[in-house]
Amino acid sequence: MTEPPAGYVAIARILGAWGIRGDVNIEPLASRKVLALGRSVHVAGRDSRIERIRGAGRTYLKLDGVDDRESAAALRGQYVLVRETDLEPLPEGEFYRFQLIGLRVATTEGRDLGEVTDIISARENDVLVVTGPAGENLIPVVEDVIHEINVEGGIVTIEAVPGLLKD
């Protein structure tokens, strides 16, 4: 699956089965608050609910109706989706990943760098993958670099610190 259906947002990607009781190992694509016990989700074309969530370094989910290893293994590569309308509003200055994908990126001097095509989650901070006329640039989401994120206006403005951008 490449794009979630209209009105849905991916909150996790299923990496494979874990154990024998239907749990799946996931790559979270949203905060732990969004991956909540009891949340209604949509996986592989059907509605489900998160029955169990655990893990510290790795995260494991148990979905309603997935009760054995074979059923869990069949979900490998699928996305765990939620309806956009079911997501809680975030505090000011915080954004869901889907809100940033597709935003234009420009420097404070007005240089167009392209658009956000992906987001890499790193230990210290997220990194925007920006694809544009100069190729691909990796923009760290840190205070010294990100000047403004304007979701409604469709643009991220950055400070082009020395060494950050491809020329």
How many strands appear in the DSSP assignment?
Answer: 12
Please count the helical segments: 2
Strand content: over 45%
Residue-averaged pLDDT, rounded? 91
- CATH H-tier superfamily of the largest domain: RimM
Structural class by SSE content: mainly beta
CATH class annotation of the largest domain:
Mainly Beta
Measured distance between first and last alpha carbons: 34 Å
Helix content: under 10%
CATH topology of the largest domain: Elongation Factor Tu (Ef-tu), domain 3
Enumerate the strands of the largest sheet in spatial order, edge to edge or round the barrel. 3-4-5-2-1-6
- The dominant shape is elongated
Compact overview of the structure:
With 167 residues, the protein is mainly beta. Helix content is 5%, strand content 46%. It is built from two helices and twelve strands, in the order E-E-E-E-E-H-E-H-E-E-E-E-E-E.
Q: Topology, please?
A:
Elements: E1 8-18, E2 23-28, E3 40-43, E4 46-54, E5 59-63, H1 69-73, E6 79-83, H2 97-100, E7 104-107, E8 112-121, E9 126-132, E10 135-140, E11 146-150, E12 155-158
Parallel strand pairs: 7-12
Antiparallel strand pairs: 1-2, 1-6, 2-5, 3-4, 4-5, 7-8, 8-9, 9-10, 11-12
How does this structure look, described?
- Strand 9 and strand 10 form a beta hairpin.
- This protein has 2 domains: 78 residues, Elongation Factor Tu (Ef-tu), domain 3 (Beta Barrel); 62 residues, PRC-barrel domain (SH3 type barrels, Roll), CATH 2.30.30.
- It contains 2 helices and 12 strands; from the N terminus they run βββββαβαββββββ.
- The strands form 2 sheets. A 6-stranded antiparallel beta sheet has the order 3-4-5-2-1-6. The protein has a 6-stranded mixed beta sheet with strand order 10-9-8-7-12-11, with no helix packed on it.
- The chain is mainly beta.
